[in-house]
Design goal:
The complex is a heterodimer. Chain A is α+β, with helices and mostly antiparallel strands. Chain A has a single domain, classed as 2-Layer Sandwich (Alpha-Beta Plaits). Chain A has two helices and five strands, in the order E-H-E-E-H-E-E. In chain A, the strands form two sheets. A two-stranded antiparallel sheet of chain A has the order 1-4. A two-stranded antiparallel ribbon of chain A has the order 2-3. The longest helix of chain A is centred in the first third of the chain and has 5 residues. By secondary structure, chain B is of the alpha+beta class. Chain B has two domains: about 130 residues, Sandwich (Jelly Rolls), CATH 2.60.120; about 80 residues, Winged helix-like DNA-binding domain superfamily/Winged helix DNA-binding domain (Arc Repressor Mutant, subunit A). Chain B is about 45% helix and about 20% strand. Chain B contains nine helices and ten strands. Classes of the chains: A alpha+beta, B alpha+beta. Strand 5 of chain A pairs parallel with strand 10 of chain B, so a sheet runs across the interface.
Chain lengths: ~70, ~220
């Protein structure tokens, strides 16, 4: 299952700006509701989050430390 | 194409006008459309049209001599573009690019200035808009000029980093900005700078810390 941005429908004002800026078709208006469409093409550009005027759409990051290979391994 | 005066009314500039005035002003605007990625304004070029965003989102940015981009703001419906050159007659201080399909309403400088002369309320609103923008830019300048923001972003990364196995609290750039006491644009710039230096990698929904020691050094030096 692909990781996708998420929408808080309580905050969403259905302005559609996120849909207009999404270049991979991951966001659509379905029956009047802004809906995330799962796709492998979403590369987390976070433009949808940047344009959202209400903070309803979020692209959260998991922060991880890369394991350094041990010497000799 | 008729101009939607409700959009004019929603802007900080024209909100003081009554319906009759809006109808008159609406007649001197013209509509222009742009597709995703199209440049609306080139930094450094001259332009004699005042634009307001009727639909869509526009990236407002500056580009350094090295080609690095700093987003200053995102203009949404009701926001204006290119007002500075309209007032001072000089080149565009910023560039603007359509983030998706965009509809703009435009008015030529001479016509806009005529309207301003005839409406003191509109002129006062214009001053208020420019004052608010100046305040926002002061904050950006402060955050971009001083080292402590980078230190705060690094601290957030180190504090919230997991091992990739146990679940950790995920953060948006907006949340990091709120934690660091800065703007989302500054966090985005900081993350990009850290990636360019090879300290982190942005992999879709993951921020991978690839050089923890260097990040700890930045943190120590920023205190």
């Amino acid at each position: 299952m692909a990781e996708m941005p998420s929408i808080d429908q309580k905050k969403c004002n259905k302005c559609g700006l996120c849909i207009s800026v999404c270049s991979c078709g991951a966001i659509a208006m379905v029956n009047g509701v802004v809906t995330i469409i799962e796709t492998e093409d979403c590369h987390w550009c976070t433009t949808c989050e940047a344009v959202c005027p209400t903070g309803a759409l979020t692209c959260s990051f998991e922060i991880v430390v890369e394991e350094t290979p041990k010497a000799g391994s | 194409m008729a101009i939607d005066t409700a959009i004019l009314k929603s802007t900080a500039y024209f909100s003081v006008l009554n319906d009759k005035e809006l109808d008159i002003v609406g007649q001197v605007f013209s509509e222009k459309t742009f597709q995703r990625g199209e440049i609306i304004l080139w930094e450094g070029e001259t332009s004699d049209t005042f634009f307001l965003v009727a639909a869509g989102a526009v990236k407002v940015f500056k580009t350094s001599a090295q080609g690095k981009e700093q987003i200053l703001s995102i203009a949404r419906p009701g926001d204006v573009l290119n007002d500075i050159p309209i007032f001072d007659g000089k080149a565009n201080p910023v560039g603007a690019q359509a983030l998706g399909p965009v509809i703009l309403y435009g008015i030529k400088r001479d016509k806009f200035q005529l309207i301003l002369r005839q409406s003191p309320g509109l002129t006062l609103n214009a001053i208020k808009v420019l004052a608010e923008r100046t305040r926002h830019l002061f904050t950006l300048v402060e955050d971009l000029s001083f080292r402590h923001v980078m230190g705060r972003v690094v601290k957030i990364l180190l504090t919230h980093a997991g091992d990739g196995v146990a679940p950790v609290q995920r953060l948006t750039q907006q949340e990091m900005a709120a934690m660091a006491g800065t703007a989302r644009e500054v966090v985005a710039r900081s993350l990009k700078a850290l990636e360019e230096q090879g300290y982190i990698r942005l992999e879709n929904h993951r921020i991978v810390i690839s050089d923890k020691e260097s990040l700890q050094k930045i943190l120590t030096e920023s205190i």
